[in-house]
Amino acid sequence: MSTPEQALLRFLTCGSVDDGKSTLIGRLLYDSKLLFADQLETLNKDSQKFGTVPDGMDFALLVDGLEAEREQGITIDVAYRYFATPQRSFIVADTPGHEQYTRNMATGASTADLAVILVDARHGVVTQTRRHTFIAHLLGIQSIIVAVNKMDLVDYDQSVFDDIVADYYETIADLGFNHIAAIPISALYGENVTTQFDQMSWYDGLSVIESLETAPVSSSSSKTGFRLPVQIVSRPDQDFRGYAGTLCGAPMTVGDSAIVSPAGTQTSIKSITTPEGEVETADAGTAVTVTLADNIDASRGDIICHGDQGMLVTDQVQAHLIWMSDEPMIPGRQYLLKLATRSATAWVSELKHTVNVNTMEHVASKTLELNDIGVCNLSFDRRMACDAYGDCHDTGAFILIDRFTYATVGAGMIDFSLRRARNLTLQTLTMDKVARARSMGQKPAVIWFTGLSGSGKSTVANAVESKLFDKGHRTYLLDGDNVRHGLNRDLGFTDADRVENIRRFGEVAKLFADAGLIVLVSVISPFRGERDMVRDLLDDDEFIEVFVDASLETCEKRDPKGLYARARKGEIQNFTGIDSPYEAPLNAELVLDTDALSPDDAAEQVIALIEKRILED
Hints:
Elements: E1 8-15, H1 21-31, H2 37-50, H3 67-72, E2 79-84, E3 89-94, H4 102-109, E4 114-120, H5 127-138, E5 143-149, H6 158-171, E6 179-184, H7 208-214, E7 227-229, E8 232-234, E9 242-246, E10 252-253, E11 257-261, E12 265-274, E13 277-279, E14 281-282, E15 287-292, E16 303-306, E17 312-323, E18 334-339, E19 342-355, E20 362-363, E21 373-386, H8 393-396, E22 397-401, E23 408-417, H9 433-440, E24 445-450, H10 457-470, E25 475-479, H11 480-484, H12 495-514, E26 518-522, H13 528-537, E27 543-549, H14 552-558, H15 563-568, E28 590-593, H16 599-613
Helix pairs in contact: 10-16, 12-13
């Protein structure tokens, strides 16, 4: 067995589906004699049960733990296994090959030092081979083993191997890997996995296990000082305040100068406690509780970093983004961002390009689809402490989460901080919203009318404004069609343009509310996420959502502008309610059934709500 001093190698197997990744790992476990008698017995029974390998053992079953995987012969989840040789110990991640599980491959690659890229000798280098290689590169892996598998199915032909290797090397020419090895193998029969066989006597290089034993292991992925993302503030009594988390970046030593980011408060490390007790120095990867020399404010989500190697503090970055959702990424749409222990609202402000993984060319795009890799500018709703991913993986990586389903939709790596207007300090003004509204005898608010075209939004909103004006209140009505003739005339009706349309409406409505006005907005605004985005722009209770609810049949009968008829004929594309969805509000402050209500009755209901919620006596 390996000794404590030997370097642990974390590696993953990846490539296209059915290239033999699980079989390779199973063979490594079997040949390393790390299987117990009951495991071998189970393997024999399962091999006979599933019949995937006639007259032999299917070593993939050692790794494919999910029943669905065993039945389909594919890997769905990421399976981790430990094994060791006299030279080195290993943790291997077996990752999926199917395109819809690329997110799982990225998960496995995020902690790996080396990637074993399997290529089926019958099929050669395919798109998924290139995609996995590029993701490994993005995630900082510097060592690659190209295992050309199933050589037994091409009669161990050296020319097949040579052609595949040449093709693969052309693929990675500009990626800058430090260590690359190419090995012809048959994982099923163990050829060149742990020992060499006569069938490929033309190959005189290392076997897979020998390459794994001798591959270089990076001592650290960090070019920064220590970073401690605070997970918990420990207060067992009034005399102790400790900050607990997992240390990353570089070692931390008692007495080191420190900065609490993003606030920028300076202090020093007073003590370090690990599960083994108090220590003078702790290495990256250690769970620690530290105390600081000064009684300063720090909480979960803050990062304690080395005082001489501070962090980026920004609300806009450029990043590489791997998209992992069936729903496309739309610039401007808000997502939840998780970076270390801090969360924020984030959106892609600009998609600069996507990467064609077959040619490595930059392609102009407006959205990201499932498995796309893009370079984008990303904005946060608050200043975040972070690093470039190339400097520190742990504080330079993030995930994006859908605000409604809480599914992870993207994984990103920060390239650098951007200096944009949002990084400037807001100018303090003498007059504020409260003073302006008080002078008008009202509270500012945004009344947001949403619904299908023809539901009566503009009619009701117009009637509401007239009634408020007659009562002496200061208002402004932003109508969807009117604003598209000016401010938003450059926008079309794609999902991306619709999101940007509502973002601009929200920002303008916020300015009018800041002026103390009651702002009425009449716009289809088909997506819940963007309506919630506007709600988040405003103060509590300042946003009132009014769902003008009319059936599609009623809207088509009204069709005041003839739009439904044209959409039915195919003359208008992406028309809401016909070939583009409308997401009805789930918790609107008011629902108006305009199938039954007259415009005046509907307006009176809105006035009653406004008087109850926002108008001062």
